[in-house]
Design brief:
With about 170 residues, the protein is an alpha/beta fold. It is about 20% helix and about 20% strand. Helix 1 crosses helix 2. It starts with a helix and ends with a helix.
Length: about 170
Amino acid sequence: MREELNKTTAFLQSKGFGVPEVGIILGTGLGKLVDTIAVEAEVSYNHIPFFPTATVEFHQGKFIFGELSGKKVVVMQGRFHYYEGYTLQDVTYPVRIMHQLGARTLLVSNASGAVNLNFKKGELMLIDDHINLQGNSPLAFKGVSMFGERFVDMSEPYTPALKNKFSEI
């Protein structure tokens, strides 16, 4: 996987992708955020070596580099899902690419349902914990130690300072 990551990263850099501060994965509902980005480079997933192809309706399938509110960002406009038949390594491959390009903060959005009737359509919510019910882990593969720890501390999976900033906003 390391060789594939290096080839993908080199390809994106050759297309004008620089060093992002923030990686953003846009799910259903926030795809139009790209309209506010000063785009410097853009590549369709199907042109990026070793990338899966987005198959979910409304997911554009573009990897974008540019500036948003004074920050360099790399953005996935659409993403891949485990339920589409991809492996968790496929699903997390773009995150590894974002990290390899230089992003150290990751923001992920999605459209989701809830059983709480007080939640209204279109409301923003901030997740502060989660339970993996997939029966698999993106850290469960041979050679994961090349990329970091297999067993990471999940007692506080989301950065407190970032959660506080989002709450303030």
